[in-house]
Amino acid sequence: MFALNRKASVIETPPDDGEVSDEIAVDSNNHYPIIVVGAGPVGTHFVNKVLSQNPQQDVLLFGDEPYLPYDRVRLSNVLAGTLNPDLLQLSLPAEKNLQQHYNCLVTSIDCQAKSIIDDTGNVHRFSSLILATGSSPHIPDIKGIGCKRVYTFRDLRDAEALIARSARSRRIVVIGGGLLGLETAKAMQRWNTHVTVVQQAPHLMNRQLDSKAAKLLLNTVTGLGIDVYLNSGVGEILGEVSSDSDGRKTVVGVKLRNGTILDCDTVIFAAGITPNIALAVDAKINVGRGIKVDEHLQTSESNIYAIGECAEYNKQVYGLVAPGIEQASVLAENIAGNMNARYLGSINASALKVVGEDVFSIGEIDTEVDRSLKTYSYYKTDTDNSNTDYYRCIFLKRNRLVGALAIGAWPEQAAVRRAVMTKQRMLPWRVWSFCKTGNLFGEKEQDNANHWQNSATICSCKALTKGDIDKSICAGCDSVEKVMERTGAGTMCGSCQPLLAGLVEGTPVSIARDSSFSLIGGGGLIAVILVAVFIGFDPIPYASTVQLDFSIDELWRDSFYKQFTGFSLLGASVLGLLLSLRKRFDLMAFMTFNSWRLVHVSLGILCLLMLVLHTGFRMGDNLNLWLMINFTSLAFIGALAGIVIGWDKLLGVKLYQRLRSWFTWGHIISFWPLPVLLGFHIVSVYYF
Questions:
Q1: Co-location of 297 and 443 in the same domain
Q2: pLDDT 10s digits, 405-433
Q3: What is the DSSP letter of 650?
Q4: Cβ partners under 8 Å of residue 206, min gap 6
Q5: What angle, rounded to 10 degrees, do the helices at 480-487 and 466-474 form?
Q6: End-of-domain residue from the set 314, 335, 356
Q7: What residue numbers bound the domain in which 96 lies?
Q8: Residue 404 contacts residue 374 (beta carbons within 8 Å)
Q9: How far apart, in whole angstroms, are the C-alpha atoms of residue 560 and residue 557?
Q10: Within this chain, do residues 171 and 255 fall inside the same structural domain, yes or no?
């Protein structure tokens, strides 16, 4: 039915009676390819990332479906008839060392031999094995589940079957009132079919919304003509044997646990997922609900990793694509040798149109699970816009934003997402403003991504930062469509497309950033030169006569001048320290982050100039000598950090990250002896 229903670049080799496949040659060092099991969005994202790190890496990709890799997130649009299935296709690099096996099921893993066996009997050795096997629809064990015309909706085969069925169906029951269930219900209305949703929980989308938001969504759903039964579990699928059947019963209704019977001719299960862990279980890899992994995404077996919906990290299985994309990115870094890349969990976030309604949810929102959450909400009905309802709620823990949700458009959505991810402190007037206006931030802090840092996430589905998008713009992508085609941003859930439009239409960071970043780098260079001059210069000699009205040596001979320059130096140092705290704890809300960086560098230069006036290039003796060594080392390392941050474009990504980490932490660590040595210095001066 679909154009995607064909195999491309598929390697079909005859069974080798257990012999090792030689489709990709093994070098003399006995290095085998990376094997990826699972050709969904997470598996293909890993392949793209790992080959971008090392284009010469040999990779085998296995998928058990007879289709090219496709985007499952937008399957409901295909089901509704609003999207051509060909547009679902995911891109993969055209590398000769990437071999793709579709409609090819991996049947077993031999951990000791570091090999897998596919359903044709071929054995494939691996250097690393990545399990991205995803999940399957959760099917409850209820009576009548084997009746004809009972469907699931999870993959392209399901979509094909449901499209074929939809034109003949007149009454459909969808089991599950989550995101997928609601989208399925709306899509199956395309032929004026009557659709009923059965939700076991007290309200719709119970994992993403609170009861107030869910009630507004319920009004939208019922307004479309979809019936909804809440707090209603399914007790039995009712079926009858028809005269033209093969003896199997055909669905005629659904019986709820409270005894209510719903007449229908089709049942669709969209009630959660079950991680695909059978391969891992058979290979005796540790599993829980999913395949257990550590912060490097490694399983209990060395060189075997798991990512996506099949993986369980810290007792949690993520049922969304975005966390899997994050895991794939981290794992690609690890495979490339960057073991500093660690996966520390994801924040569940969704920003989609559900049955035509804008729904946004991120972070911790379950007050039943965490009683310490404080909630603040805003509600408004826009009478000028067809009585549109807007509901927003934020969730604070110890005055930090840890969650938010909304029904209806929220211009601050991207800014709120960033604030939740960084657990930004919410000052009382921000909370008060939110309760009154529904907004937490000013206009500059909303969705104008041109003011964001390079590391800020633009597309969470693809784990793409503002820096990634700016690179594509500088490479000639002058439209949102070109940026989407080049990077993949906005092709999954689409919620970041307004941000992409702002970046394309605005000034790319690579141009706008030069002023502040170049000044930071230049300031760091000046500071390095000053430290070198201070250490290399001979001390300024004392005047040979006292007959002069004023000589330069009075600055470090006269007690007044000595105290003036000393306390000025101390004040500038303390102020610089306070600005460092601002950079890390966001205590002040005015000025941009890089502006504070520039002020911090400027204060460092001022401290070095005051040090010259205070000492005349003298290093001192004993504890004073150690104080001078500590102070100049602190300034020197901080100056190097400024140069690296300011002129990062002259460095490769890996070198930049490594140098920035070294110098930043070196600057922080070298500070700690300073208060003690400075205290001894002040006490000794005033005591003696």
A1: no
A2: 999 988 888 889 888 988 889 988 889 98
A3: G
A4: 177, 178, 199, 214
A5: 110
A6: 335
A7: 34-72+79-135+274-335
A8: no
A9: 9
A10: yes
